[in-house]
Amino acid sequence: MTQVQRLLSFTKKYSIRFAVAVILMAVVGACEALTALLIVPVFDRLFVDAGSGPILLFKWPFDGHPIYLQNFLPHWVHNVWTVVAISAIAVFLMKGVAEYFGTYFVNFVGLSVVRDLRNQLYARLVDQSMAFFGRNSTGKLMSTITSDTDKVQTAVSQASADLLREVFTLVGLFSVAIYLDWRLSLASLVMMPLIIFPSSRIGEYIRHSSRRSQDKMAELNQILQESFSGIRIVKAFVMESFEIGKFKAATQRLLKATLRMVRADAATGPVMELLGVVTIAGLLFYARNQILHHGQTTGSFVAFLYALIKMYEPIKRLTGINNQFQQAAGASQEVFRYLDVSSEIADRPGAVTLSGFDREIVFDHVDFSYESNVPLLGDVNLRIAKGEVVALVGSSGAGKTTLANLIPRFFDVTRGRILIDGHDIREVTLNSLRAQIGMVTQENILFNDTVLNNVCYGHAAPDLPAMEAGLRHRRRRARAATFRRAKATPRHRPRFAQEPAAAHSR
Q1: pLDDT in tens, 315-337
Q2: Mean pLDDT over residues 426-431, rounded?
Q3: Which CA distances in Å does 321 have to 7, 18, 143, 203?
Q4: Which of 26, 41, 99, 203 can bridge 326 by disulfide, Cβ–Cβ 3.0-4.6 Å?
């Protein structure tokens, strides 16, 4: 399944809104086609013979049944100028309303998809093991959740709205062009391979450039995270200049990667305009002969030329939309790569719930090594009874923290087993195991939340919002009581403020 197909799978829960958006964008395309058809009576009737006769809009291609503008208006509206003016206003009004609501619904679906994608990605990353976070830097993970998904958001919201609008506009205008002159329409399709081939090659280059640019952005986020988190060490060793130079080098690499993508994206516009001018020049030469030999009216040719010029605008925009989708495809590779990663530490099938801690913790011939396969702990045997206080003493890097991290299963042992009340901790659920453990880490972290929530972190308290509301209520009552006491206290002017005046009067 490609990245685009996986992204589209997220839209299933919003299928009704997406279907409404598609219908509304189809109405926009139909209005563009009607605008082109309205040009014919403007040149052939208003500028030649206005009168009050029927105004032909088009004929059905299969049975040739004529459709007149008067069919859509009251019978008492018969003046040609009035009929065309009211029709033009109605078409543009309908197009504006359909485009507004269609764009809103497409963006609603796109932004909701990105929200679901971010939530799913964050949930998957948080559920990973500590070994996973050791292999992947924090800056890179943050860049994936923010920067990479931003590229996806642009594609599935704004670019998707533009895609639907331009595709239906292109279909409607091409139908008008076929209706007016099918030979000339098919001849203009000769230019299509010249448009599709360079657009596809440029889009492929943009996809790879986008991936490189996102990687450089992840590198930049990693430098920011490391320097800000370790700012005390940076200042202690007077390494500010070194970190600034490293940051400048990273931004320069990001600039070069982004400029490659910009150069490719900027090349699509001039190529499309050059091909469009060549096509229109040939059509003008053809139309001159057609009008002179009465093979085509002025109105029909102007309408055909309008439709053709308006067709090249959607084609040009579609190449830009393709570039945006290619950028999103490059960015989504890393997103889906993380979504496909399974957690190394998970509940085994049939895991039991650890109801409590009653007797002892036992390390039974425990070996452990990180991914480098360098043994850190070897044949550790340890028994800790309930109520007993045990201190692990050793040099830095001896494995004290690693030994403690094995109990809540931040890592799994390489050999042996750890027992709590006779239960192998790999055979109990993670939630029930970690619910029995309290931990104070070497690095203290305060979450960006209230003091109450930081203190209660880790306790699922259903009444926590109520506790906060009660705390705010008590604070308001205390402030109100303080205000009432201050108001009730009589304010006397100090006597020494009056004495100078009295002395002066004496």
Answers
A1: 767 777 777 777 777 778 888 88
A2: 88
A3: 16, 18, 23, 10
A4: 203
When pLDDT is averaged across residues 186-204 and rounded to a whole number, the result is 66
423-424 sheet: strands from edge to edge: 375-385, 360-369, 415-420, 423-424
**In this structure, are residues 427 and 348 in contact, taking their beta carbons and an 8 Å threshold?**
yes
Contact 121, 339 (CB under 8 A): yes
User: Does the global pTM surpass 0.70?
Assistant: no
Q: At CA 150, angle to CA 149 and CA 154, rounded to 5?
A: 115
* DSSP, residue by residue, 257-321: HHHHHHHHHHHHHHHHHHHHHHHHHHHHHHHHHHHHTTSS-HHHHHHHHHHHHHHHHHHHHHHHH
Rounded to whole angstroms, the Cα distance separating 244 from 249 reads 9
Asked whether the beta carbons of 226 and 140 are under 8 A apart, the reply is no
Confidence of residue 348 (pLDDT cuts 50, 70, 90): confident
Alpha carbon 323 to its chain centroid, in Å, reads 16
Gyration radius of the chain over CA positions: 36
CB 80 within 8 A of CB 45: yes
| CB 309 within 8 Å of CB 276 | yes
124-133's contacts with Cβ under 8 Å and 24+ in sequence apart are: 124/338, 124/339, 124/341, 125/338, 127/343, 128/341, 128/343, 128/344, 129/343, 129/344, 129/345, 129/410, 129/411, 130/345, 130/405, 130/410, 130/411, 131/344, 131/370, 131/371, 131/411, 132/341, 132/343, 132/344
Distance separating alpha carbons of residues 259 and 272, to the nearest angstrom? 21
Question: Rounded to whole angstroms, how far apart are CA atoms 46 and 434?
Answer: 82
Bridging pattern class, strands 375-385 and 423-424: unpaired
What is the maximum alpha-carbon separation in the chain? 121
Query: Comparing 18-27, 141-150, 295-304, 353-362, which segment has the lowest mean pLDDT?
Result: 295-304
Residue 119: helix, strand or coil by DSSP?
helix
Tens-place pLDDT, residues 143-154: 788 878 877 877
Q: How far apart are CA 334 and CA 358, in angstroms?
A: 45
